[in-house]
Structure formats: structure tokens, C-alpha cells
Predict the structure of Glycerol-3-phosphate dehydrogenase [NAD(P)+].
Amino acid sequence: MSKITVLGGGGWAIALAMVLNDNGHNVTIWSAVNREVEALKTHRENKISLPGVIIPETVEITNDLKSAVNGAEIIVMAVASSFVRSTSKLLKDLIPNGQIIVDVAKGIEDDTFNTMTEIIEDELPNCDAVALSGPSHAEEVGRKIPTAVVVGATTKETAVKVQDAFSNHYFRVYVSPDRKSIELGGALKNVIALAAGISDGLGFGDNTKALLITRGMKEISLLGTAMGGHTRTFNGLSGIGDLIVTCDSKHSRNRRAGVLIGQGYSLEEAVKEVNMVVEGAVSAKAALNLSKKYHVDMPLTEAVNDVLFNGKKPLDAVNELMNRDNTSEHVDLLWK
Ligand SMILES: NC(=O)c1ccc[n+]([C@@H]2O[C@H](COP(=O)([O-])OP(=O)(O)OC[C@H]3O[C@@H](n4cnc5c(N)ncnc54)[C@H](O)[C@@H]3O)[C@@H](O)[C@H]2O)c1
């Protein structure tokens, strides 16, 4: 069994560390946040993000990055997306060429439009960056509830190595060569999750939720394919799968922030109340800029941006969306 190091001490880092520990690996958890390391060492539990999941003594917990990554066959990047670049920089002189780094953070950098593995490769050009994504709440993986994700890598060999490391009876891992679409799906669904939350906050129902999921998926897929991705991946676990789970789950912080915004909170007030990073807000700006760059019409993404950043009232945004010109569901499907 291998040494595998998980960077980050939040809910997802711990849930994945438990999967890897259950698979018999020699697991180390590292965090840059000293008080988090101390709390994890004292309680063997992240009482805030993943209460009830006890980290066994076989898992090492440290704030010493050099010793944490020394000899690790796989490094798992499980910090919040806003810290992926700074954490990658810290690894610069500590890892060998070809180091496998599995990113599980979801987001798009707003100034570069980089996905998380692209940020990692930018900082660490000789590493082997992999994306692991899909419908997978830490709260449920921590309870060993059957879950499936997909791993995207540049070679099949690496993808299968990561698949073998993570797979078990409650965590099923598929592989794919389409890393870019996997990451775009994971990041862009957070924008639509904000819209789904806003819809719930406004008191709308299942019809509106289904509308948002299907038309939101259409926007993600149109942008993703314009950027070189594959429709089939957007129709898979990391696309529609993750979108469904995020738009309808009590665990989704993006959806919860959206609910508050639908109820009249500003973005700042909602983020403060949720008390966690709302990654969809960063991805919303990036998605809008990407839609302009690739000339893709993304009305839902535009409306979310207007509500989050331009002071538009959620109900006004809904009225504008519903009163757009009539059109076909799929403009590329032609009449006989
Ligand atoms: N929670 C989930 O169910 C889940 C599931 C799939 C993917 N993800 C993704 O995984 C990533 C981590 O999510 P999360 O829920 O575990 O926690 P999170 O997004 O709240 O991340 C917090 C973690 O980031 C790390 N961090 C904070 N400040 C830092 C700093 N200055 N430098 C380096 N690291 C710092 C800390 O370890 C902290 O626990 C996110 O991108 C999220 O979208 C989460």
C-alpha cells in the first residue's frame, strides 16, 4: 500500500482521507491552518465541517509540508479553490518530477480562467495533475454511503492508478481522458446551484428547479464544448450528476447562499451567514467572462451575476428570464 498525503483539513479532505485509510493506505493529512491541525490532533475530528467522523490514529496529522509529502505516491489537493495556487507554490521544491497530484477542489480562477489542475500545472510544470470530481458530499462519503466519481487524467495509466487507490465498496471511481470537461462541470454547477437556491428562497417549486437544472446544464455544456470539452462528459457524473446533487441538497453551501439571497440577503450577508467559501460566486464571474470570450449565450449565468454583483432584485431577474424572446429548445435540431 502507498503513502498518500491529503492537503487540507476541511470536510472533503477528511472524507477522502478516510476512504484512503479504509483502503489500507498510509495516509497523512496536512493543513496550513495551525489551529485546524491542533483541533484535528486533539479531537481526531473536524467538529465544524464533518462532525461524527473520527479520524483513526493510523492517519498522521501535521503542519509540516516537507515531511507530509516526502515519499508520497499520490498527493490530494483538497484545500478551498482560492488556496490551490498558493498551496501549489509551497510544493515547488518538495516533490519529484511526475508527482501525481489529484485535485478535488472545484473552481475557475477569475483572472486566468484556469481550472484547478491548470493552476497546479502552472506552478508545478513537471507534475502529473489529475481531477477527481462528481456528486459527492463529504457528509455522505464520511458515512460510507454509496457514491461514484470520475477521475480525469492525461494518461490512462495515471487515471487507473488513482482509480485503484480510491475505489472501494462505497466509493466507485470511473476514469476518463476528458479532464477539462470534468473540471468545468464541477466549477460551473456552483453557479447554477446559486440560482437553484435563489429559486428556493423565492418560494418557487420543483418545476423551477428542474428548469434551472436542465437549462443550466445546457449552458454548461455549450460553454464547455466551445472550450474543447465533450457533451458526454457534461452528461455524466461530474456534469449533470454533480449539478443535480448540488441544486437539491441541504449540504450545498452554494445553494444555501442562494436561498438567503432569494430571501433578500446581499451576497456579503449570505456568505457571512453560510460561514464558508461560496465558490460559485467566483466561478460566476469567470463563467460570464468565458461566455463572452467564446460567444456562448448563458442567460442564467448572466442573471446570477446581475443579482450577485449588480444589485438586480432576484424577482426582476426571473421576470426578465421568463420574458425573453421565444426560441427552440435545441437550436441545432432542424425541422424536416
Ligand atoms: N465538502 C464537500 O462535500 C466537497 C465535495 C467535493 C468537492 N469539494 C471541494 O473540495 C474543496 C475543499 O472543500 P471542503 O468542504 O473540504 O472545505 P473548504 O472549501 O471549506 O476548504 C477549507 C480548507 O481549506 C484549507 N485552507 C484554509 N485556508 C488556507 C490557506 N490559507 N492555505 C491553505 N489551505 C487553506 C483548510 O484546510 C480548510 O479546512 C472545495 O474546493 C470544494 O468545492 C468539497
